[in-house]
Amino acid sequence: MHIPDGVINGATSAGFGVAAAGGVGVAIRRTGAYLSERQVPLAGLVAAFVFAAQMFNFPVISGMSGHLLGGLLAAVLVGPWAAFLVLTVVLVVQGVFFADGGLSALGLNIVNMGVIAPFGGYAVYRVLLRVLPRGTQMVTLAAGLAAFVSVVLAATGFVIEFAIGGTADVSTGAVLTAMLGAHVLIGIGEGLLTGLIVGAVMASRPDLVYGVPVPPVTTTAEVM
Amino acid sequence: MDRRTRTFLVVGLIVVIVFAVGVSQFASDDPDGLEYVAEQEGFLDTAEEHALSGSPLADYGEDLTDNPGLNTAVAGVVGTVLTLMVGYGIFWVARRVGGRGDARSTPET
To answer: What is the pTM of this model?
Structure first.
């Protein structure tokens, strides 16, 4: 869901650009306050994974594809503030080197994929962890469900931006309906992929995962 | 860094490369959700050409060589390495700027 140049007017795009730039400064400080030294390479790896996974567009319906957004995945693995930076790095690399996502629309894309998806999705994830029974499988399930919601939230973010500064004379209601319809389907793919990856990391190194409520007893002993 | 963490990161990097070079070959060429909606709702024509559409790796190296598979693989490797470097750099800086940071995660000692 990379917004190209021109779809949202210049003033709105610039406003979101300034907000995103300010957010990056805050995110660097907030991330540094909780990220442990050994999570630094993991966070870099998560960024590389999100880039690589976004190259894979999976077919959704005839004539439409979708790709992993990765915002909730990154939030569960390294925390929402680090996820903000992960998506920002991915979007900058895509926009500058691969002509993917308009340069003037960078702030809009960072807000949708780097702020709304990880923070909104992570809030849902925490509620789900509280509601669901405890256990490793529940972490995977909660991540998958929250990932689904995160894509729908990010799509809604675009509609809000379109309502504020869309350059086309198209009704916001029609765009909202179409965006939600498309991204409910894409969100299913997001949920499955996120569940798969969180499940694999939980099976091998649950102690490296940020969003685990209680560190498993066994790995605490192994770290010593 | 302990050996288990190193093994985990190496395996993770292999998975990333497999995605960037291999899985990406099977990517659908159909428009993604936003582009599809833009087409359906009639605002795709407001989208402008990307300012850097002439750069060598534009559209993931689409016009790099005559071999589309090779183009995707090159774009995948270059993008992965760039993202890894910029990502590692920004988190390294975050650690230095944000200070301490072991309160939230598991102990290192």
So the answer is: 0.93
